[in-house]
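Hi R.,

As promised, here are both runs. First protein below:
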Amino acid sequence: MAKQVVTIDGLQDLDKALSSLPHSVQKKVARDVLRESAEPMARAARQLAPRDEYHLYDSIDVSTRLNSRQRSLHREEASSSFQEMFVGTNNPAGIQQEFGNERHGAQPFMRPAWDAEKKPTLSRIANSLWFHIEKAARRLARKK
């Protein structure tokens, strides 16, 4: 399974503003924004997932954690300051549904959700990050 990389140009100002915050605040802001922005993609995947197959609908979530099998397959390429969020199922049957097997054809639910939501999700992340960075900066200024 090939890893898909998405590159966004023109976010230098956003990165500069985020890095002006303390590290712990950066992580919280990034985690909150990523979770909030990815939830519509998870909802789309839940709508597309077969409801009668292996409880896939219930297992689709947005999280910073992977199960042990997913962790073994995931190679961390970024520095420790980089925040990752995962959208998908922790149910091994999800791979069989998504790609099919010798007993049944593919019934994709994650890929169509990604295709439909990738641009809106990236837009939500950029817009929401500005809002949360400004909010955190005001909160820090009040504390000082």
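And here is the second one, sequence first, then its structure tokens:
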Amino acid sequence: MSKVSLIAQPAVRTTMAAIESIAKHGSLTKLDVAAAYVTSSGAYDLLNRIEGTLGSRWTVVKKRWLTSFDYCRTQPVALEALLSLPASSVRVYDAHFCLSHGGRPKVPFHPKAFLFRGKDNDFAVAGSGNMSRSGLSKGVEVGFSLTVNRKSPSEPTSASAMKALWRWYKDAWEKATPLNSALLKRYAALYESVPNLTHPAATEDDLASEETTKRALSSQDLQKLRVCSHFWIEAGNITKNRGAHLPGNQLMMKRLSRVFFGYDPSPVPVNTIIGSAEISFSGGAFASYTLSYSDNKMDKLNLPMPGTIGPAAYDKEYLLFREVAPHKFNLTIGTKSDKAGWLKRSKAIDADFKMASGREWGVF
């Protein structure tokens, strides 16, 4: 028995929906992915969706991820997340050549295929979308999913095509370079270099800004917010949202700062909850904190409660957020000297900003 289904996102059926449907079949033992590049948001969405479907069974599924360093589009934090999964390994196509040529490949690596093996069935999802948020669910993409029963394949052409896909993956995997901490460190150094962060290569997760006001962040600014792993800001006077005599915990940020925290720059009504960010203060436990669009037309992020999980107060402090995993951020408080260093690094890539109030902030 075999089955073919259309992927035509976003309206008809998304790549993510096709993958989730396969995961619901259960009894999955193996996942092989080949993706031209992997973004932080793409990794976050895919891993959360599959783990949410499979539950504890996800830990025993053998996972292989084949990607590239081409054009520095894959985010190091996404690779680190894939490496950290149980029963997971990552390989990079033509890694050393690409690194020695500043991220430019000898032959571009451009597949988008997700292969699953279950107890009786093999599944394939292939199409035009990368392992990015846009490629998996939001962008205009097309493809198909194929299911073949290994024990009773009624259509020889489908069974033959599925076997050919697995052979192609096996060959590509054996030719690729295993990713380890040393290789990832080399790639991260290239990715985070001044030339790359000044002019990063676009992915389909880089959406144009619809803001037209004079002080609005440009589309190029938003791209830097997406690719950078550090976001710093002068906290200023925090609103007394907890009462007149208690330190507040709501940080007001420039509109569309949400992009750094993994969200699209799409317009939303005021007083809308955009989502949440997993935040750890100074290495403590991670917890979820709400990110919203305030009625003062600023992005508002709730912070770890001052005096308990967080510091005594955030007022007048210099805050630094570092993305340590997709949608996970370590928050620390810096000194005036630290802030000067952050500003210098932001200026080097033209990613230093100032709000109307005079508060400075930036990314690097």
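A quick note on the second one: The chain is about 30% helix and 30% strand. Let me know what you think.

Best,
J.
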